[in-house]
Amino acid sequence: MTVTPVEDRLRVSGAGLSVLIAPDKFKGSLTASQVARAIAHGLRKEQPGLNVIELPVADGGDGTLNAFLASGYVAHPISVTGPDSDLQPSTLALKDGTAVIETALTSGLAMRGDRPLSPLSGTSRGVGDAILAALDAGARRIIIGLGGSACTDGGAGMLQALGVSLRDGSGAVLYPGGVSLLDLHTVDISGLDPRIWDTEIILATDVTNPLCGPDGAAAVYGPQKGASSEDVTVLDRALGHFASLVAPEAAHLPGAGAAGGIGYAALAVLGATARPGIELIMELLDFESHLAGADLVITGEGRLDDQSFHGKAPMGVLMAAARHNIPTIAVCGSSQLTPAPRHPDFDTIHAITDIAPDIATAIRNAEPLLERLAAQITVRKRSARSAN
Prior knowledge:
This protein has 13 helices and 15 strands. The chain is α/β, with parallel strands linked by helices and 388 residues long.
């Protein structure tokens, strides 16, 4: 009689073993939920007895809303003013008095379709519309994921949607866009929706940039939104003028430069607080409770590189798992990651580019390739600190 080694039997069945799958999106290819599902399918093909928990995460940027919806929040359809001042459909996530707003879905680049970029006139009004919709839905805590914005208006459009009066020297209402802030003459917050004062507003972001200057919203992120060097100079001057009339000291707060300065307006006028996006989202998703009993954690994102150490979702997951001595594997589209001092390391990194002939194929066939990668992962008891 031939006896199959215990480890081989576990590979076949996965009996008694638990895996937590907590990836971020693969930008331009798959949502975080799709990534988690593909990895889960691959694991179950080889180890059908595994207890697999899918818990997509995000860091405050694109995909934040989907992470909450996948965890039990309810989608609430709304209409918002897009970055080009046209009415567009959007969505909130709601649960137990908490609303989640994703800037990318309310004032984001992705909302512009194939239209040319408009760095000087893009507005953040859609975020303000979403806040009003959240208040109308009964939310008294609002999480705003700051990432993927198409505007550099310091959050002026958001404030206008909420009732703040911004007028030029002739008394006319300020028109949309960051460049218009150069004409700003008076700021009146007396019309701000009073429900704001009874609402906790939290900004989820990994951005610590100030509003203005060489590290500010226009200089660092303006070019991503189509701003030329001349546009950057004009927008930076406009943001500085805006801050001088609202709250000069707040322009230097970490995160003021997030999402084209939406962070500034939220911090300076709405009384918001800023939190590292992945930490906040893991807390709201009760991530720690999902780690209980896990023998392995699998995380990842489209591209792992040295920037991943700075507030990105996979590193937040890795560090949480390390506190419980749970081995963690990264699955990604591609990796240029080098070990960083003072950080734990992934047990292994599996990249789609390792099995795809080129980047285009890796992106186009990401889902089936992820399943193939996941099928190669062996889940062992937690005491083992490696997997391959």
